[in-house]
Every structure is written in C-alpha cells, then in structure tokens.
C-alpha cells in the first residue's frame, strides 16, 4: 500500500521487515530492491537483486530491475545482456524491448535503438513510454521528419496539459509502472511537443 501511494520510505521499511521475516524468499527481496531503487538507493538495491539472480538466474523481474538500475547508473553496456536475456525469456513483452532500446539510445546508437522502439510499438501501439522514447531518440538523432509523424499521433491521443505535467516530472531516468524506464527528458523535448500541439490548434482554428 505504501509503495503505490508514493510513500517510498515507509515502503522500504515494510518490505525490509517482510524480507527479514522471510530471508530466503525472492519476492519480498525483489519488492525491497524495487522500493530501494525508487528511493535512489541504487547500490543497496543492486546488492539485493544480485542475491536473487544468484539463486534464481531466470527471475525475469530481477533481471529487468538490475538492467534498469544499471541504466540509471549510466552503465548501458552492462545492462544490454540483461535485457537481452529478459527478451529471450519473454519475447512478446514490449516493455523489455523499450528498455533494450533505451540502452542503445544512451550509448548513442540511435538507429539500433529505433529498431527496438518500433518493435515495441508493433505489439503495443498505444504505449506512451515507447512513443516518447522514440521521439526523444529521433530528436537526438536529428531525424525531424520522423519526430513530426510520431508527435502527430501522440498529441491526438493525450491531453497536452497531462503530457507536459508528466514530462516535467521526468527529467531523470525513472522506473515507470515497475517494469520500464521513462525517458530522461530535456527542454528540447518538451518545447518540441508544445510547438506541435500549438500548430495542431492553429489548424483546428482555421475551420
């Protein structure tokens, strides 16, 4: 309850007690690691995740969380094999593809990143995280024509106020819904989205 209400400090304490009462249980340790990650205690979280993986090397949630922690620590090369292993275990899970694409984006391999974002969108065409990552990737790659097409789709499906408010909270890599990283946003991304929305409103006003 604490975790989903955003009370991360109490969530850490709750899952710490749960883990201590069941030290061999993977789930309490995983939930503790997730809460520690949300609280910014990345090294501590990584220790717990490594412990889980040493005992259960195919625990996909732990593998994915470790990869996300490594990305938050700016260690994309170390994260790549973890996300690849996750995709082998769950090839249809689109948000694992997003995390793999994010790794390549952070490495500056924008073409390869875009392949994974596109593949994620084939399975979940309305995934806002995948669209935002793809837009950011295209902006950083200088592919403005592709940015325009994706923005057209995005601003047709979501309130601009909600989108901008959400983006302003995401100026650093953060875990979204426990399984995927939201993109690290900057003013260029926000201003591009605002401009696209204003152009859309201008077109509507012409009729």
Task: Summarize the structure in words.
Helix content is 72%, strand content 3%. The chain is mainly α and 207 residues long. A two-stranded antiparallel sheet has the order 1-2. α2 runs parallel beside α4. The mean pLDDT is 84.
Total number of strands = 2
Could you give a short account of the major beta sheet?
2 strands, antiparallel
State Rg: 18 Å
Q: What fraction of residues sit in β-strands? A: under 5%
Count of DSSP-assigned helices: 11
Following the backbone from N to C, one meets helices and strands in this order, namely: HHHHHHHHHHEEH
Topology:
Layout: H1 8-21, H2 26-38, H3 42-55, H4 60-72, H5 76-89, H6 94-107, H7 110-123, H8 128-141, H9 144-155, H10 160-168, E1 174-176, E2 180-182, H11 187-205
Antiparallel strand pairs: 1-2
